[in-house]
């Protein structure tokens, strides 16, 4: 019986691989036919691509899991946006619904898990040690991200020779903010009203409140601490269960987000400023291979298991261009991988303000691109000074779309660079945002595993049944 089960499993794997291969061939043929014959072959090309999508749906149905449906939804959404742009743009409402549901989870989840992690163990010295290690790791990795972005844009020189018109028409209006000072960011870290912080989705402020609340709770007697601790433990379990329920809607939300992006921007945007886009994507890939992978190997992270665990939150981040949308699933995935909840609930939320590797790299490349496009020569010293400024200002980048543009405008104002090239970047920012947000999520997930390894706690605690249930769906 056991051998028969193994044989059936092997047959299923082979058939699934065949389905994926057939789908890939149909999609490739449809794309190639569309490129070769243009309008004349548009109908046949479209049919081939949709046949590929249908085969992928069969594959996802056989797997009976949410994760493959998310991948299929991305492909189907891109196809809808390309074939029927008006329909794709109209589907944005489903993406917004998904994001709203996710946002209702984030603050209570962080609050409950952090308080439980700190007060439940009562090891305040351990919390402080973990915080110091996390900040050291964040600073080292984000600095390396700046270096990679700086080197990439200086090699490609994507902005050199770009003609920038004086006025760039754009559907979006971005106003230049005043220069960001470190005092403003430091003040912004601390909440003045926890209800306001929760309502506005200020993740770092909620985390800071949770840390102080957890420390205060840990110092109380067992009699007074136990009821509040049980409430927080129950709330964290409920929010993870809430995440599992919302994830059933994820394929619809992700597909709608892709349909809107392609329908709104169009594939022609790949031609406009393509060199900068390739530079950013190439730099992000290089960062993953030259920085994140060696770090994972250095700390003996199980790379294959980590990639499987991070696949779903990374996909959500790519399609929605929002780190926040992937946060609950990222925390759940890392706990299922073996990172204790108290480490997950501390490192990942903190990383959303201090360890946005993709956004930091993008800011480095985009800042030098602006100078190149404006014909402003920056010496190595000036470029390093700009990177030092970005080390501070990038820490305040929120996990939401287009927040990097605010920092970019502030940096341009600080170094007296023109804003016109920034408005040109708006044309490809949506596509760049997908990649940098994915790297943000992957980098923060890796940070939680690294800190757990550093603390000697990886795989040391049993995983909640609710979390295991969510990963099995």
UniProtKB/TrEMBL annotation:
Its main location: membrane. GO terms for cellular component: plasma membrane. Coiled coil: none annotated. It is found in: Cell membrane. It comes from the Bacteria. The chain crosses the membrane at residues 18-37, 43-61, 68-91, 97-122, 134-155, 203-221, 242-260, 280-299, 361-380. Keywords: Cell membrane, Membrane, Symport, Transmembrane, Transmembrane helix, Transport. One of its GO terms (molecular function) is symporter activity. It is a multi-pass membrane protein. Signal peptide: none annotated. The keyword Transport applies. GO terms for biological process: dicarboxylic acid transport. InterPro entries: Na-dicarboxylate_symporter (IPR001991), Na:dicarbo_symporter_sf (IPR036458). The keyword Transport applies. This is Proton glutamate symport protein.
